[in-house]
Every structure is written in C-alpha cells, then in structure tokens.
C-alpha cells in the first residue's frame, strides 16, 4: 500500500471510528442491539445492554458512567424484567413515536410510558445527554418522554443515590 493510500485509509478509519463512538442518538430506522452503545456528547454517560457480573444470563438496558471503569449504573429500563435470551433483542423507536425494548420473540419488555402524543408524528429521536438524561424528542423538538420524569424506575446522580453495580441489580443502595 502506498503512503498516500495509507493516509487515506487511516483518515477513513478515524472518521469511521469517530462516527461509531460518538453516537449519542437513536433514530427511527436504527435500533440498539446488545453490544451497541449510545455515548453522551461529552462522554460522561453510556447507554446500552449489560449483565451483572454474577449472572451473565440476565440482561438489562441501562445507563452508566462512561468514565468510571467499574460500571456504575444510574438507570435501568427493565429492572423487573431481565432478559434471558439475548438474541434479536433490540431497542427501537416505533412509528407511533414510542421507544420499545423487544425481547427475542418480539415481545415488549419495556416501553416509554406516557408519551404525550399518540402517533401521527413524522418521527422521533432519542438522545442521551451529559447529565444522564435520556429523552425521546419529536422532530419538531417536543420532548415526549424522558427518564427523569419517571422516578419510579429512575435513579439519577442528582438524587445522590447510585445503584451499586457490584451488588445485585435490585440490591443495595449506596448514598
Ligand atoms: C457465563 O457463561 C459461561 C458460558 O455460557 C458459563 O460457562 C459461565 O459459568 C457463566 N458465568 C456465570 C457467572 O454465570
Ligand atoms: C412504519 O412506517 C414505515 C414508513 O412509513 C412503514 O414502511 C412501516 O411499515 C411502518 N411500520 C409499522 C409497524 O407500522
Ligand atoms: C432465543 O431466541 C431465538 C430467536 O427468537 C431463538 O431462535 C432461540 O431458540 C432462543 N433460544 C432459547 C434458548 O430459547
Ligand atoms: C402520566 O402523566 C400524568 C400527568 O403527568 C400522570 O398523572 C400519570 O400518573 C402518568 N401516568 C403514568 C402511567 O405514568
Ligand atoms: C410537535 O408535534 C406534536 C405532534 O404533531 C405536537 O403535538 C406538538 O405541539 C408540536 N410541538 C411544537 C413545538 O410545534
């Protein structure tokens, strides 16, 4: 490979890896599968699938600090419904502008409750921001759902409570 080719190749590699790594949005035709991650713009938080270290069978969709090596989970979507069959699991935005977590058989494991619109929208985009807020926005900017509105299934840093990842997922709370 010539030197110029190598440069082009390297540049392409950089562009591609930036494109993949700095993705903080989920849009309608895409879906998030196990192994994929959304990372907030300032690389503070990550959203994706994880399994607790003591059980590589149960899988959860959650948000954790991207910068802390020991995974510190701050929000879990399907806390009460862990997924055991990991194949074909995906988080998608539906045509009715809801965000839905599907299991391997296409059943709904979790979805955004209380979205204020009932369909009709041109589309929606889900964005993870640097404060750990995950929000579902219509294309006109209206936020129809965000995790901080749902405190029953949300534990955020601002509440000064973190879920210890090492403990059982439903377990200990550390102030
Ligand atoms: C994780 O999965 C592997 C392969 O399926 C299995 O051998 C191992 O015992 C599992 N570990 C735990 C902690 O469940
Ligand atoms: C969603 O909308 C797209 C494009 O309009 C259409 O092709 C697709 O069939 C729709 N999906 C469902 C489940 O209605
Ligand atoms: C997991 O789901 C896939 C896809 O639906 C299916 O083919 C497979 O048999 C399932 N595995 C188990 C162990 O149920
Ligand atoms: C939906 O939102 C309304 C108004 O904010 C609230 O009273 C209601 O409890 C919510 N329902 C659910 C299922 O979260
Ligand atoms: C955005 O679109 C939704 C659904 O069509 C509508 O309810 C909402 O009022 C719109 N918001 C703005 C700011 O136009």
TrEMBL record:
Keywords of this entry: Receptor, Signal
SUPFAM superfamilies assigned to the protein according to its UniProt record, in alphabetical order: alpha-D-mannose-specific plant lectins
Record-listed E.C. numbers: 2.7.11.1
Recorded catalytic activity of this chain's protein: L-seryl-[protein] + ATP = O-phospho-L-seryl-[protein] + ADP + H(+); L-threonyl-[protein] + ATP = O-phospho-L-threonyl-[protein] + ADP + H(+)
Domain Bulb-type lectin: 23-149
Membrane topology: Single-pass type I membrane protein
Ribosomal protein found in the keyword field: no
Subcellular location: Membrane
Superkingdom of origin organism: Eukaryota
UniProt-listed InterPro entries: Bulb-type_lectin_dom, Bulb-type_lectin_dom_sf
GO MF entries: protein serine/threonine kinase activity
Main location as per UniProt: membrane
Pfam family of the protein (one): B_lectin
Single Gene Ontology BP annotation: response to other organism
Protein name, UniProt field: non-specific serine/threonine protein kinase
Source species of the chain: Panicum hallii var. hallii
